[in-house]
Design goal:
The chain is α+β, with helices and mostly antiparallel strands and 160 residues long. 47% of the residues lie in helices and 18% in strands. The chain has six helices and six strands. The chain has a three-stranded mixed beta sheet with strand order 1-3-2, covered by helices on one side. A hairpin with a 2-residue loop joins strand 4 and strand 5. The N and C termini lie far apart (50 Å). This is ImmA/IrrE family metallo-endopeptidase. It holds the Pfam family Peptidase_M78. InterPro entries: IrrE_HExxH.
Length: 160
């Protein structure tokens, strides 16, 4: 079972419909708490769309489709950022590197998303944290993407 199915199970209390009848320009939408996913998209794109629509369900209210309004753009970006952090967390990046995954194609496959979405998410993290961030006992460098285990050599017992 993949991440898409996992999300469907996790949010089985929501009405989620996959539809082939949605207009081509529309990937998904959340209307009155009901989520609609364009099933003409690839399964990786459907996962990305589902995560974002769930974020809209959790975080935004009302009709925010008019992107000419500042608050609507703000809420749209808020939902996108939330979805990115849910699909590709810092822990997921660390886990990928522990599995020996180092290139964009393998990362996208590991996260079950598109390469484009992977790049967008890494760019988002770079904007949020800068070129590096410390997460637990790891340091994540976003450009080029690398993960290092942080060891404090100044702790008692390590230096003789």
């Amino acid at each position: 079972m993949g991440k898409y199915e996992d999300l469907l199970i996790k949010y089985n209390h929501l009405y989620i419909e996959e539809s082939k009848n949605m207009p081509d320009h529309l990937s998904g939408m959340c209307v009155d708490g009901d989520i609609f996913i364009n099933s003409n998209r690839s399964i990786t794109q459907q996962l990305e769309i589902l995560a974002e629509e769930i974020a809209h369900y959790k975080l935004t209210h009302g009709n925010i489709t008019n992107d000419k309004e500042f608050n609507n753009r703000k809420f749209e970006n808020y939902a996108r950022r939330y979805a990115k952090e849910q699909l590709i967390s810092l822990n997921d990046i660390i886990n990928a590197f522990k599995h020996g995954i180092h290139n964009l194609y393998e990362l996208a496959q590991f996260f079950e998303v598109t390469e484009h979405y992977t790049l967008e998410t890494l760019e988002y993290y770079k904007q949020k944290y800068g070129l590096t961030t410390r997460h637990g006992k790891y340091v994540i460098q976003f450009e080029p993407l690398r993960v290092f285990e942080y060891k404090n050599l100044n702790q008692r017992g390590n230096i003789k």
